[in-house]
Amino acid sequence: MARIGQSRAVQVAALVAVAAGCSAPSADSGTDAKARTTRAASPWGKPEVLFAATPRTKLDPDQWKNYGRVPSTNHEGWYDPHEPHADGSTGALVFPARVEPGCTPPEYVEALTCHVGSVAYMKRSFTTGRISVTAAFSSKTFAKPVLMAWPNNDEWPSGVEYDFFEGDDGKYSGNLNYAGPGGSKQTLEANHVDIDITKPHTYTLELTPERVRYLVDGKPVLDTTQPAALPKSPHRLTPQVDFATTHPGSDSRTQQADMMTISKVVFESYHAPEIDRGAGVEH
């Protein structure tokens, strides 16, 4: 009997030890689980490839439209409506710039030499969203490549101009131009980033109702919540090759021809972030 009593005591002690290792569910455990599983969903939709380089011979007229013959930004030349094209072997979009020595420039061109650039826009417009362009420039001098989101209605500065890539003297720069008091031009400048613009890089513009960001290869270089700089109307992607006044004299430019090539354009739609309350799953 003494042995049996001792055995029972050991069993009871073991059961007590096991019970002590298990805690009863608390009244707040459901709330804690919800708190652990609550997270902010991504505001960006599924990436949509608007353009990818594949062998073709011309711009897709359903996607792109060339501007007509208009003066370049600094009136040093003009944009040729026939210039932007797709490379026949790679399919990459090509935006060339050239000089035509000895030609007679149009009356609105202030330079003695004919500087011919190129500009086109993507017909797909957007007010908010994230657009990423993979591009490279053929040299670090002469012409000025630009990737911008330009107002659909061509009104500026009442519409904001988002220049999320500019090649100034071979260096990356970015500008955001918007209307200030009395319609005056106001400019925000992107941070400097040391890259070789002759190599392919991905330049990204993010537009939301509360914030605008520029990114280079995924790294933010401009971030603003300035109300006047936020998107309020549709914009369209508009690549161009222009002429800057800071480059060497015309003698050093007469024999040069440059180009910007675009190999990919990806767009992601924007939607207001929602709360994802997954049941029983930790994120």
In short:
The protein is 10% helix and 42% strand. The protein is mainly beta and 283 residues long. The two termini are 57 Å apart.
In terms of quaternary structure, what is this?
single chain
Total individual domains: 1
Q: Quickly count the helices.
A: 2
CATH topology: Jelly Rolls
Radius of gyration: 29 Å
Percent range of helical residues: under 10%
CATH architecture: Sandwich
> What ranges have pLDDT less than 50 throughout 5 or more consecutive residues?
1-7, 14-29, 33-39, 245-255, 277-283
**Major sheet details:** 18 strands, mixed
**Between the first and last Cα atoms, what is the distance in angstroms?**
57 Å
How much β-strand is present in the residues? 35-45%
β-strand number:
20
Q: Rough shape?
A: globular
For the record, the CATH class is Mainly Beta
Structural class: mainly beta
Description:
With 283 residues, the chain is mainly β. The protein has one domain (48-268): Sandwich (Jelly Rolls), CATH 2.60.120.200. It is 10% helix and 42% strand. The chain is built from 2 helices and 20 strands. The protein has helices at residues 2-20, 29-37, and strands spanning 38-40, 48-52, 64-66, 70-71, 77-79, 85-86, 93-100, 114-122, 125-126, 129-137, 143-151, 161-168, 171-179, 185-189, 201-207, 212-216, 219-224, 235-243, 257-268, 275-277. It has an 18-stranded mixed β-sheet that branches. The chain has a two-stranded antiparallel sheet with strand order 1-20. A hairpin with a 5-residue loop joins strand 13 and strand 14 (185-189). The longest helix is centred in the N-terminal third of the chain and has 19 residues, at 2-20. It is globular and about 60 Å long.
